[in-house]
Amino acid sequence: MSSATSTALFACSRCFSRHPFEELSPGEQLCKECRGSFPVVKCTYCRSEFQQTSKSNTSSICKKCEANVKAYGKPTACEYCNIIAAFIGNKCQRCANSERKYGSAVTCEQCKQRCAFDRHDDSKKVDGKLLCWLCTQSLKRALARTKQHLSSVDKHKHRSHKSKNSHKEKRKSDSMKGNGNDISMGDVPLEKKSKLNPLQGLFSDPNSSDHVVAMTQLKETIASLQKKVQQKEMELLSKDKLITELKAQHHNDTTDLRIEMKNKERLNETKFSLMNSKIQNLLKEVATLSKSAKRNNKNVKSLTNDNSGSGTDSPSTN
């Protein structure tokens, strides 16, 4: 039984063509052709990458976040990672699950925010660093880009080595042909020999001026490209530093705003309680005053009645 028939094949979720499991994309299980026709997009809310499944629907929100938006409305910023993906409470689903599994959050060694979770497993760390989810994803993408760049450089070197070997073989065959022509054309004069084979001197001499010029040009281009790569790397490092500083500043600003809001709420509560106590005291005073006024009115009425009664009952004198 052959190895091709023994290996299990899996169907693409889009075109239903069968491929090995390694060739299908994780999550959506798409083949290379479907992956090429539909791009990979980052979700607006949870910042995870997903494959678009239709050209008509070009939204940048994954299926999970769409369902959560329909169920709970638009999310708020997570108190740990500051990603706008907290649909329930103040934490996103990723940070809530990580806190439930691995305990409270610790500071990330890259972005210096309190959004990483220690799994107590060195194999889960990236380059021996304890990073948060966003930093691990960005570092993995950078490592993948460097590996791809190195593989392309190795392929280019292998091709150049092959071309050099083929060029040497061609020179050898041309030199052998030139020697045969020299033997067959023994009676031909030297001027006719040079006219018949004018390129023989170029192929026979590997240290000619044309080769030297080409080598120097290639060396100069390689040096300029290396300088450009170094400049781009420095720019990327400076941008990463700026991003981390902005994230830290944003985190500090949000914490300061939360503290100010809490202080204002406390002040408003104290003022509200004071006003309520004053209103209650004033109501009590009004009630006591109204009672005293009623008593005074009753006393005045009784006095007037007494005076009128005494005036009518007095006897008449003859």
From TrEMBL:
Superkingdom of the organism of origin: Eukaryota
Keywords: Coiled coil
Region Disordered, annotated ranges: 146-189, 293-318
Record's compositionally biased regions (Basic residues): 155-170
Pfam families (alphabetical): FAM76
Cellular component terms per the entry's GO annotation: nuclear speck
Residue ranges with Polar residues bias: 299-318
Similarity comment text for this entry: Belongs to the FAM76 family.
Protein's name according to its UniProt entry: Protein FAM76A
Organism annotation: Pieris brassicae
Highest classification ranks of the organism: Eukaryota, Metazoa, Ecdysozoa, Arthropoda, Hexapoda
